[in-house]
């Protein structure tokens, strides 16, 4: 993801748990991106600018052709964060409008955590159908009001607030104005994605003067791996820029890097300060492709680089392998040992050391042939060796042997072991006692239910229950006679009491 040939990447990595940012406001006016909120605009916010910018939720890059804002807006899960969420959206609105006011093109993309219209929220459609919510109430929430004032085609809610000009274009909705079910986020807890019960909260927005630059925009709802799906927009290869047709590669890179759509300079020489290629962990590192394409050094070349061996005979003798040194030790000691053994009476020599010495000699001969391979250890012992070992007689006079019990005691042990054999009926009853009870089956599909835990605050918080294993349908309700989730609901405590 960092060293992909032909691409550059940018990451927002907070240094602290709550997030952090790297300020670039101190640069000179010519080097600044610009469009910063003024003091009058900041007075409208309840949080100070450092707090709003403390969670690393926005990465801003300026290209010669446009300014790109990658945004992850706060969600509305916690009521204690409503004020912070409102201030963040207001600060984003101020920055975008200020950039467009000074003549810069703007692209905003990311998770904005706002559904623009009822068409973009399955939950809102179901709530309005059940008369739990009206369309005006849905459109009048503060984040949605602010978003619809910023984006072209946004429906106004209440008319009590000041209306502002719409300066951005929703590309995906622009190419699919009446498409239903075009959702980009689904709740994983209720397995809502298979039934497409979700919301569209991810966008690619651009300023109005860039509408002709794009040829297509869509979602990739079939791409799994997250509770969101990607949203993309395709830019033309050649666009109208400063009263001339220019290649998009020429105007999104520094001058001189591309000419007529062809690269003229290496990528590493033109990387921006926030480029992922310049992160210390990846700078000057080879990619996997380069590592696999690298040619290995020939063995002859490595031998040529080896240092010269010493010419001292003693040094050469020390460089011998341990196997050869062991063989030399055995051969040097064999003559003296043989002469000593010849002068010793035969009846005083124990057979055990002779066998050990023979094994040592055999082992040394095997070691001299070289190191054994892994396949040698995996080989099975030939049956002839096993039969010889089984027919080998051991006398009780040998001090290393221990006599076995007599035949009568052996028969008694067999009788006792036979009496301790468990009864099959008792074994089956104990197995049933410790076997977990099978889950109940749902009423609509006769399939084994799944167990979930209640997390909603109240008297039932923490209790487990069984429900239908199938996902929710497009309506978001439990349905009867459909392939989606049926209304089966059983408390685990009630199911256990039926045993």
UniProtKB/TrEMBL annotation:
<feature type="active site" description="Proton donor/acceptor">
    <location>
        <position position="111"/>
    </location>
</feature>
<dbReference type="Pfam" id="PF03372">
    <property type="entry name" value="Exo_endo_phos"/>
</dbReference>
<keyword id="KW-0460">Magnesium</keyword>
<feature type="binding site">
    <location>
        <position position="111"/>
    </location>
    <ligand>
        <name>Mg(2+)</name>
    </ligand>
</feature>
<keyword id="KW-0464">Manganese</keyword>
<dbReference type="GO" id="GO:0008270">
    <property type="term" value="F:zinc ion binding"/>
</dbReference>
<feature type="binding site">
    <location>
        <position position="113"/>
    </location>
    <ligand>
        <name>Mg(2+)</name>
    </ligand>
</feature>
<dbReference type="GO" id="GO:0005634">
    <property type="term" value="C:nucleus"/>
</dbReference>
<comment type="similarity">
    <text>Belongs to the DNA repair enzymes AP/ExoA family.</text>
</comment>
<dbReference type="GO" id="GO:0008081">
    <property type="term" value="F:phosphoric diester hydrolase activity"/>
</dbReference>
<keyword id="KW-0479">Metal-binding</keyword>
<keyword id="KW-0863">Zinc-finger</keyword>
<feature type="active site">
    <location>
        <position position="72"/>
    </location>
</feature>
<dbReference type="GO" id="GO:0003906">
    <property type="term" value="F:DNA-(apurinic or apyrimidinic site) endonuclease activity"/>
</dbReference>
<keyword id="KW-0378">Hydrolase</keyword>
<feature type="site" description="Transition state stabilizer">
    <location>
        <position position="113"/>
    </location>
</feature>
<feature type="site" description="Interaction with DNA substrate">
    <location>
        <position position="228"/>
    </location>
</feature>
<feature type="site" description="Important for catalytic activity">
    <location>
        <position position="202"/>
    </location>
</feature>
<feature type="binding site">
    <location>
        <position position="228"/>
    </location>
    <ligand>
        <name>Mg(2+)</name>
    </ligand>
</feature>
<dbReference type="GO" id="GO:0008311">
    <property type="term" value="F:double-stranded DNA 3'-5' DNA exonuclease activity"/>
</dbReference>
<dbReference type="InterPro" id="IPR005135">
    <property type="entry name" value="Endo/exonuclease/phosphatase"/>
</dbReference>
<dbReference type="GO" id="GO:0006284">
    <property type="term" value="P:base-excision repair"/>
</dbReference>
<feature type="domain" description="GRF-type">
    <location>
        <begin position="442"/>
        <end position="495"/>
    </location>
</feature>
<dbReference type="GO" id="GO:0003677">
    <property type="term" value="F:DNA binding"/>
</dbReference>
<feature type="active site" description="Proton acceptor">
    <location>
        <position position="228"/>
    </location>
</feature>
<feature type="region of interest" description="Disordered">
    <location>
        <begin position="294"/>
        <end position="367"/>
    </location>
</feature>
<protein>
    <recommendedName>
        <fullName>DNA-(apurinic or apyrimidinic site) endonuclease 2</fullName>
    </recommendedName>
</protein>
<dbReference type="InterPro" id="IPR020848">
    <property type="entry name" value="AP_endonuclease_F1_CS"/>
</dbReference>
<dbReference type="InterPro" id="IPR036691">
    <property type="entry name" value="Endo/exonu/phosph_ase_sf"/>
</dbReference>
<keyword id="KW-0862">Zinc</keyword>
<feature type="binding site">
    <location>
        <position position="227"/>
    </location>
    <ligand>
        <name>Mg(2+)</name>
    </ligand>
</feature>
<keyword id="KW-0539">Nucleus</keyword>
<dbReference type="InterPro" id="IPR004808">
    <property type="entry name" value="AP_endonuc_1"/>
</dbReference>
<dbReference type="InterPro" id="IPR010666">
    <property type="entry name" value="Znf_GRF"/>
</dbReference>
């Amino acid at each position: 993801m960092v060293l992909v040939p032909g691409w550059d990447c940018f990451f927002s990595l907070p240094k602290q748990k709550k997030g952090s940012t790297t300020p670039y406001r101190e640069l000179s006016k010519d080097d600044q991106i610009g469009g910063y909120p003024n003091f009058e605009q900041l007075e409208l916010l309840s949080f100070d600018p450092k707090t709003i910018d403390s969670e690393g939720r926005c990465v801003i890059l300026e290209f010669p052709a446009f300014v790109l804002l990658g945004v992850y807006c706060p969600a509305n899960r916690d009521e204690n964060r409503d004020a912070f969420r409102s201030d963040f959206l207001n600060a984003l609105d101020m920055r975008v409008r200020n950039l467009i006011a000074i003549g810069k093109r703007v692209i905003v993309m990311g998770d904005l955590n706002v559904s623009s219209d009822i068409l973009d929220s399955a939950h809102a459609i179901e709530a309005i159908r059940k008369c739990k919510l009206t369309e005006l109430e849905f459109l009048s929430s503060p984040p949605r009001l602010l978003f619809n004032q910023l984006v072209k085609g946004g429906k106004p809610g209440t008319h009590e607030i000041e209306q502002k000009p719409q300066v951005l274009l929703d590309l995906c909705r622009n190419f699919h104005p009446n498409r239903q079910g075009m959702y980009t986020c689904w709740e994983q807890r209720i397995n809502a994605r298979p039934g497409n019960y979700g919301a569209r909260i991810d966008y690619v927005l651009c300023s109005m003067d860039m509408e002709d630059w794009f040829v297509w925009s869509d979602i990739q709802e079939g791409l799994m791996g997250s509770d969101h799906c990607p949203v993309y927009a395709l830019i033309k290869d050649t666009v109208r820029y400063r009263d001339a047709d220019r290649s998009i590669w020429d105007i999104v890179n520094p001058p001189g890097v591309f000419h007529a759509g062809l690269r003229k300079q290496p990528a590493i020489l033109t990387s921006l300060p926030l480029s992922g290629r310049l992160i210390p962990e990846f700078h000057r590192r080879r990619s996997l492709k380069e590592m696999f394409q690298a040619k290995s050094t020939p063995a002859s070349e490595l031998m040529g680089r080896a240092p010269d061996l010493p010419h001292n005979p003693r040094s050469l003798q020390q460089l011998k392998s341990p196997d050869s040194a062991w063989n030399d030790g055995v051969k040097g000691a064999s003559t003296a040992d043989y002469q000593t053994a010849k002068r010793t009476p035969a009846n005083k020599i124990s057979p055990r050391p002779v066998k050990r010495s023979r094994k040592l000699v055999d082992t040394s001969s095997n070691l001299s042939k070289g190191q054994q391979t892994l396949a040698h250890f995996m080989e099975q012992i030939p049956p002839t060796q096993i039969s010889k070992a089984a027919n080998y007689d051991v006398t009780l006079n040998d001090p290393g042997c221990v006599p076995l019990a007599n035949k009568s005691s052996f028969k008694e042990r067999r009788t006792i072991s036979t009496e301790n054999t468990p009864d099959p009926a008792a074994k089956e009853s104990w197995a049933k006692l410790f076997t977990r009870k099978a889950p109940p089956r749902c009423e609509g599909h006769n399939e084994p239910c799944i167990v979930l835990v209640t997390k909603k605050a109240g008297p039932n918080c923490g209790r487990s229950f069984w429900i239908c294993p199938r996902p929710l349908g497009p309506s978001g309700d439990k349905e009867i006679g459909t392939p989606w989730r049926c209304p089966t609901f059983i408390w685990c405590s009630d199911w256990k009491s039926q045993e």
